[in-house]
Each structure stands twice: as C-alpha cells, then as structure tokens.
Amino acid sequence: xxxxxxxxxxxxxxxxxxxxxxxxxxxxxxxxxxxxxxxxxxxxxxxxxxxxxxxxxxxxxxxxxxxxxxxxxxxxxxxxxxxxxxxxxxxxxxxxxxxxxxxxxxxxxxxxxxxxxxxxxxxxxxxxxxxxxxxxxxxxxxxxxxxxxxxxxxxxxxxxxxxxxxxxxxxxxxxxxxxxxxxxxxxxxxxxxxxxxxxxxxxxxxxxxxxxxxxxxxxxxxxxxxxxxxxxxxxxxxxxxxxxxxxxxxxxxxxxxxxxxxxxxxxxxxxxxxxxxxxxxxxxxxxxxxxxxxxxxxxxxxxxxxxxxxxxxxxxxxxxxxxxxxxxxxxxxxxxxxxxxxxxxxxxxxxxxxxxxxxxxxxxxxxxxxxxxxxxxxxxxxxxxxxxxxx
Length: 391
Known about the structure:
The protein is mainly alpha-helical. Helix content is 50%, strand content 6%.
C-alpha cells in the first residue's frame, strides 16, 4: 500500500539524543535553494521506498512553479491513487501503456470510491486521468522516461470530433478521457436564498452573505481580513476590496456598506464573545481570521461546506458553497442585461467577468445561459406557440 508521509520540521538539538545533537545543529544551519515546506507530501511504496518521480513532479509544480496549496493537494491525491493502483496490480510505472490507463479509468466507472462509498463523478474520473497523462508528459519531458505510450498526439485516440456549444473540447479529449458535457451553474431564487440564510447559524450565515453579495470564491473568502471587513462607517454605499484571485492574479470585489455593517455587528457580538470564552477556558484567543466558530478557532473550509450542505438538505435543496457565487453572477448578469436593453452603455458579460475574476469570457458566458427565464413570460410564449395565437 502506498503511504503519504508529511514532511516534518527539524527538531531542536536539545530534543534529540546527545550523540545526534551535533548533526541536528548542522541540519538547522543548512540553507537549501528550494526547500520543501513543512507538511509537503512524500509518497512511499509499501516497502518504504520513496517514489522519487512523484515527489519531483510535486516539487516542480508547488515549489518551482509556485502553485497554491490546493493544487499541491490535488496533484498529490491523483498520484497517490495512481501509484496505489499500480502497486495493487504489481505494475511498474515506467512500463504502463494505454490498456493499463483504460483499465484504471474503467475501474472508477464500475466501482464506488473506497473513501466515500459513492460512485465516482464523471468530473473526478476525467480529472484523475488527465492528471496521470500530465505526469507522464512531464516524465518524458524531464528525461525520466525515454518515451511513454501515454504521451504523444491526442488525435491518435480521438473518439469524436463533433464540436458542441456545451462540450469541453481540449487537447486532452482523447481516447482516455470520457465525453463530458459542461454543467451550467445552479443559482437559487431569492426565496430559497432567504430560507437558506435563515437556516444557517453564525458565522456561516455571514460567510454565505459575503459570497452571495460579492461573488467571492471560498479560497478568496478566507483572505478577507478583520481589518478590511471592519473599516469605519462611511456614507459610501459600495466599497472596493482588493484581493488575490485564483492563480495569484490581483483583483477586487465590490462590497456593499450593508454587508460591512452586518460584519461589524458579528465582530462586536459573536466573535468577541467566542474569543472571550476561549480565553476563560485557557485556549488560544488571538486569531487574525475574520470568521471563527463558537470554540474561538478559525472556521475550516470543510466545516463551512458541510454546514452549507446540511442547510440545503433541511430546505430540500442540493447546496454547495459555490452556489452562492453562481447566484451572485446570475442575478448580477440578469440585472445588467436589463440595464443594457434600457440603453445603458455597459457590457454585462465583461462587468461580471471582472467582478468574478474569470480568466476567459467563455467562463462568464455559462452564467448567461443559466439565467432562468421569467415564469410568466415563459407561460405566455408557450401559450402562444401551442395555442396558435398571434403574439
């Protein structure tokens, strides 16, 4: 079985046996050009041998290319699952071919995930297959392999060349990757949003409002500092908040004064009370994070996602934290489209693209296609078509 061991920090010389203290002191004085941080994942085989190619691949993408911690975690999960499969089937990673990768893909199609017990989603299957293909393309490029049957011209394995408006056509749409139709965003209505917000408890209701009113990603929401969110009251109705977008791109969002007012109330009441209680109970009570839980510790991403999902179940909805962001985009785009039709000199898609921090306008266009047509107008159109009446 493949094991992931997290890189630890070097011990203090006083904490090791006397015969090792000199070596520990020398180790602390060493300066590496590209050091791997504490917590960096190291993959080992069942025989406790380091899987060096996998470590080098992760090192390049996280240290040299300066990708985010989420990207490192994603690549580590893909390589762990791939090498675990190879070890279970007694396969050498340097000798695998297309048949082995197809078998790996088909296994995920037929068997549930051992971690969740649920069937794999199509996006997960394609994501892992693409990760394996990138790893072997990297191995050939870095001369760790002379060649590999998993690299080369994707057109050798093309299944379909039909282009569709909602079909992802990339260089990796090959024999290995399953055909995948793009899912449109799922916004909630105003009534559903109010019901969900009423179900959520602090601070999760405020976190949801930040996403709903600004369109922040979950990773970007964690960047909102206590200082920025509690700026002094102002007569300005909308404030600009500078953030670092996905991919370390600089950007900004527009924050209404009403949201900042709700945040100030949360800081002065709930957050303050929770920190004081944590201090009375001897726990650390000095946190710079804006959103903390009732124990006085920063809210984790997984907890917020789980609480949001549970609130959706209570309200009879399939809910994720990303739905708040989708709702913001769809409602804003619908309103801007109305203003543009009324004669306003604006480009609705471009405005939403900037505020959402999208790299490409095609991504924003998905929200335009997801806008729900007004029910009364739709009924009138259907009556006209089916009844044969003239509009």
